[in-house]
Design goal:
This protein is an alpha+beta fold and about 90 residues long. Helix content is about 25%, strand content about 40%. InterPro entries: Acyl_CoA_acyltransferase (IPR016181), Gcn5-rel_NAT (IPR045057), GNAT_YJDJ (IPR031165).
Length: about 90
């Protein structure tokens, strides 16, 4: 099972791929210095795709120095479970 994540900036979302097929996304709104995650959706549950998607999206955002506004319940929950990412979140 190969899982990859990429930023589809034209669609304003990070996308997760399972064995080359798009399997979900995390939509966002980008503003200067901040990114607001609004919705996360995956086609297959129970394979850790949503967690892999958000983990890699947050790593990318952290590298870019953006503050995360977690409007999406899944992203908000992920940040709560990972206090090591507290510095990226706008709480």
């Amino acid at each position: 099972m190969a899982v990859t994540v990429s930023d589809n900036a034209e669609a304003s979302r990070f996308e997760v791929f399972l064995d080359g097929e798009r399997a979900g996304f995390a939509e966002y709104a980008l503003e200067p210095g901040r990114i607001t995650f609004t919705h996360t959706e995956v086609a297959v549950e129970g394979k850790g795709l949503a967690s892999a998607l958000v983990e890699q999206a947050l790593a990318d955002v952290r590298e870019r120095g953006l503050v995360v506004v977690p409007r999406c319940p899944f992203v908000r929950g992920y940040l709560e479970k990972h206090p090591e990412l507290a510095e990226v979140a706008d709480r």
